[in-house]
Structure formats: C-alpha cells, structure tokens
Design goal:
Layout lengths: L11 E6 L5 H9 L16 E6 H7 L1 H7 L7 E6 L7 H10 L2 E7 L6 H12 L4 E6 L15 H6 L3 H20 L4 E3 L10 E5 L8 H14 L12 E10 L3 E10 L1 E3 L3 E4 L6 E4 L2 E4 L13 E3 L1 E3 L2 E6 L12 E3 L6 H9 L2
Parallel strand pairs: 1-3, 1-4, 4-5, 5-7, 6-7
Antiparallel strand pairs: 2-3, 8-9, 9-16, 10-15, 11-12, 11-17, 13-14, 13-16
Helix pairs in contact: 4-5
The protein binds guanosine-5'-triphosphate, magnesium ion and sodium ion.
C-alpha cells in the first residue's frame, strides 16, 4: 500500500585516505577480521567490498544507540576499502564515484597529508558527502584506552594532559581543513551537517569511536539521504576490478548498487576494443563480514539483490573496462543499443 515505508538498501560507504592512516584496520575492527595483517607490507592494493549486517552494527553500537534513542532501519552497510598509496588514484576515484557516503580517514598524529587532500578533491568533484574518521587517538601521549566505547565516554576518563593534546590536535586538523576551504567540527558539536564536515575520533586498535562512526554514518543516510538509499529495481552495477582466477576463468568484482542479478543473465559490458556480450556463469558473494578480496569461502548464489559486493564469473570478461557499468539484456532490450551504450562509457 502507499502508506508502506519505502524499502531501503544498504548504503555504500567508501573508505578513503592517505596511506597507513588505518583504513583497513578500521574495517578489520568493525568486522573482527585481520585483512591488514595479510597484506604485503601492509599496503592495500585493491578495492574490497564487505557487507556489515545491521544486527552486527546494532550490537557494536548498542550503548550509544540506546543513549541517543537511535533506531537502525537500514539492512546494513556495504563498506568499500581503497588503497592510500599514491599510485592508486584510479581506485580511489572509482570508489569515491560510486559510494553514497565516504569516510575520509585522517591520522590524528599527522593531520592532512598528500592523499588526504587528493581524496578531498575527488569527493568534491563528485559531490560525494563525507565524514572524517580522526584515527589513532590511542597514540596520544598518556591516552587511557577504553575498549570499544563511544568516544565521549572515553574522553571523560582521559587525564588533563591527554585531553589537552586531543583538543589541540583536533584544532590543528580543523585549521588544516579550513585551508582546504572546508568547515569541520567534532560530530557532536556539528551545528549543520550540510555545512560542516563531521569529525569522529577513532582508534582501530582499541575500538574507541567505532560505535560513533557507525551510528553517525547510519544516521546521516537515514535522515538526510534516505531517498538516495531507497531500493530501486532498475539495475545499477559498477565493475571495480577484473581478475582471471584459476579454476574460475575471467571474473569481475562489482558493486551491485540497485536491482537484481541472476545466474544465466545475458550481460553487456564495455570492453577494451569492443563491447562484451556474455552470460553470467556464477555469482559469488563473500559471507557477511568478509569481503570480495578474500579468495576463500565465496558463496554461489542463484541471484543477488542490491546493494552487495559480488564476484561475477562469465566468459570474455578479461577484457572488461574497470569503472564502467554492467548492463543486463532482457527480452525487451535491443542488444545493439546496449552494446552502444556500454561502449559509450
Ligand atoms: P593503505 O591501505 O596501505 O593505504 O593503509 P591503511 O590506511 O589501510 O592503514 P592500515 O590499516 O594498513 O594501518 C597502517 C598501520 O597503522 C598498521 O601498522 C596499523 O596497525 C596501524 N594502525 C591503524 N589504525 C591504528 C590506530 O587506530 N591506532 C594505532 N596505534 N595504530 C593503528
Ligand atoms: Mg589498507
Ligand atoms: Na597500510
């Protein structure tokens, strides 16, 4: 009926920032995994998508949500990790272009760095709303770690010294953001989310501030951007990466933003040289709290509904162009039209 609330999909959150600010570590903390520890020299080289179910978020942010009387209505969050190393500008660009909201991670001990500024410019160019995780608060001198609590609870127990250093580092970051012509404020003091960027102090080591990050991201999506995350049937699917995998053949890692993909779907994809027409052999998803990057444990699906990170297996995909849309050709579509559309991207 018309009085029913619209169906919401999980918002797509992209994690961006300078190298080693703690993007993957924050994700690991949220998922209770250790992807960062398995990376070569600890450097992220790919984009990874992971789905965090709402039950998990509710659980981690229970105390804060209760205090704020905040209710989670979204099915979950789809988090996309990106590399901070300077050579991966294309991956940051792809991630920031596709997400509903970005989390820009800044190391509180370093302030703004080269790829922080590059990320800010990407987000601005694409008009992507974002919040800042001011990470590594636990490195402040004499910081008393309070595991997994919300940041204001933790600030209450800090020594005068630690609290002063915290204040002065927040002030420095606010001043550096002002140089980039951005107004910023600690999120609980933010007078207007449309005019000020919210800062969420966090630690990926102690978990402090992680409840805040999840509540704030969800709150912004539910309150201000609900329309953006209203589920739509019309297919919207972006290819992030192309990989040939032994035993599977040509695959792409994609983010399904809206709509449904099914095994056997006839697909049209932009290809180097010519458009690719193929049929989906299998649709693989990581179990909740895992990500598409991790090779093991992928689950085959008959169909997948947005939003979700998905590995698509189909012959011919090795020539697909990352960053472009995947189209499905139904009985009503004209294949030549779709090929032209795919190739025009
Ligand atoms: P790239 O993907 O390579 O850009 O790095 P990243 O932003 O994902 O950072 P990563 O998670 O690899 O962390 C870099 C280093 O910082 C690792 O040694 C982490 O253990 C450490 N680190 C991350 N977050 C925190 C934090 O909150 N506190 C402390 N003390 N160390 C952290
Ligand atoms: Mg990383
Ligand atoms: Na790193």
């Amino acid at each position: 009926s018309s009085t029913e609330e619209p169906e919401l999909r999980s918002p797509i959150l992209c994690i961006l920032g300078h190298v080693d600010t703690g993007k993957t570590s924050l994700l690991d903390k949220i998922r209770s995994t250790n992807v960062q520890g398995g990376e070569a020299r600890g450097i992220t080289q790919q984009i990874g998508a992971s789905f965090i179910p709402v039950e998990n978020i509710r659980d981690q942010a229970k105390d804060l949500a209760e205090r704020l009387k905040f209710e989670f209505k979204l099915p979950g969050l789809l988090l996309i990790d990106t590399p901070g190393h300077e050579s991966f500008n294309n991956l940051r660009s792809r991630g920031s272009g596709l997400c509903d909201l970005a989390i820009l991670v800044i190391d509180i001990m370093h302030g703004l760095e080269a790829q922080t500024i590059e990320s800010i410019n990407l987000l601005r160019m694409r008009k992507t709303p974002f919040i800042v995780a001011l990470n590594k608060v636990d490195r402040i001198y004499e910081w008393r770690p309070c595991r997994n609590v919300d940041i204001r609870e933790s600030l209450k127990v800090q020594s005068r010294h630690a609290a002063q250093e915290f204040d002065s580092r927040v002030k420095d970051t606010v001043a550096q953001l002002a140089v980039q012509e951005l107004n910023a404020s600690l999120y609980w003091k933010n007078p207007d989310h449309r005019k000020y960027v919210s800062l969420v102090p966090t630690s990926a080591v102690t978990g402090e501030g992680i409840p805040d990050l999840m509540v704030l991201a969800t709150q912004l999506m539910q309150k201000i951007m609900a329309e953006k995350v209203t589920y739509r049937d019309e297919l919207q699917c972006t290819i992030l990466e192309v990989k040939t995998i032994e035993g599977l053949g040509a695959t792409v890692d994609a983010v399904l933003v809206n709509g449904v993909l099914s095994e056997g779907d006839k697909i049209v994809v932009s290809g180097f040289g010519a458009p690719i027409v193929s049929t989906i052999r299998s649709l693989l998803t990581p179990p909740p709290l895992r990500e598409t990057r991790v090779k093991t444990q992928l689950i085959p699906n008959k169909s997948v509904k947005a939003s979700m990170g998905v590995k698509i297996v189909a012959p011919g995909l090795e020539k697909a162009v990352p960053g472009t849309s995947l189209l499905v050709c139904t009985e009503d579509d004209d294949l030549e039209d779709l090929k032209a559309q795919a190739q025009s991207e």
